Amino acid sequence: MTIKAKQVVFNQYGSPDVLQLVTTDMHQPSQGEVLIKTLAIGVNYSDVLRRRNTYFQATPLPFVLGSEVVGEIVSVGNGVGTPFIQGTKVLAILPFGGGYADYVTAIAQYCIPIPENISPAAATGIFVQGITAQLMVSQLAGDMHGKTVLINTAAGGVGSLLVQLAKLNGATVIAAASTDDKLKIAKKNGADFTVNYSQAGWSKKIKDLTNGKGADVAFEMVGGDVYNETIRSLSAGAHIIVYGCASGVQGNIHPEHFVDENLTQSGFNLSYYINNKMPLWQEVLGNVISLLAQGKITVDTPNTFALEDAAEAHKQIETRRTTGKVVLTTQ
Questions:
Q1: Residue 173 predicted with pLDDT over 80
Q2: Please, what sign has the CA dihedral across residues 319, 321, 325, 330?
Q3: What span, in angstroms and rounded, lies between the C-alpha atoms of 110 and 95?
Q4: Domain 3-124+301-329, what fold?
Q5: Where are the domains positioned within the chain?
Q6: pTM as predicted
Q7: Cα separation, 247 vs 197, whole angstroms
Q8: How far apart are CA 151 and CA 157, in angstroms?
Q9: Regarding the domain delimited by 129-271, which CATH topology (the fold level of the hierarchy) does it fall under?
């Protein structure tokens, strides 16, 4: 049996307007696969980069974006058994895209059953945002108990979770964002102090908040002047973890500053862990699901769009009008 499915596809690189809703035939799942009726679809900044053809991996054309969906299994292919049975709610990881659709096929081994008390929209934040935040905390940041941690883009999908995880790990959190409204969200998530990095010289405020010392650990993904000010806000011997450059502008702090202040910098790329450290990221994924199911962390999803409004979702991401996890819905 063939199902008529709606997909958002693009045939050329460019602005959000290249995203087009089409109808296609969705065939039954093959060996080891499941067919999923999607309920919620995660939208990530990497989707924007793929659409522009500026992602670090090549994006073929035509292409359907979407690396994570949450939905219900409607049929299974040969060789697929419990727990992946009809009606099971799962988070499906789609390493080759295809998620911007109301039906998707996924490899059963890349699916994770989701507890009923986690909403489909919230569950879309488990994979990319959740394990990014948790891996950086557990693998790179070290013991944060009693330390001052600066978190940039603190109202974003990863940033919101970093605020919560840092607090769970005993840190004093300084949340930084571009607007006061976003800082209110970070405060709600547990930040001790907030700083607006759209204001010039904001690193001085961080030094003032820490009695002249500066932050011990910083999480940064903006780049440009925000990166530069972040470096200036650090204490001697501090550690900065860089996991993106959303502005597209390179920072320009002289390497001697790192030497003089004995600073260290780590880079984080989720794809590296996915491709090279499967047992680790799978363990971390389970930890994130457990924390979410227990209510120890929450995933904010204030920006939800219908599948056919994917272009608008991209526009709002690019103009920095979104907070938390951005989600497409099919209902």
A1: yes
A2: negative
A3: 9
A4: Quinone Oxidoreductase; Chain A, domain 1 (3.90.180)
A5: 3-124+301-329, 129-271
A6: 0.93
A7: 13
A8: 12
A9: Rossmann fold (3.40.50)
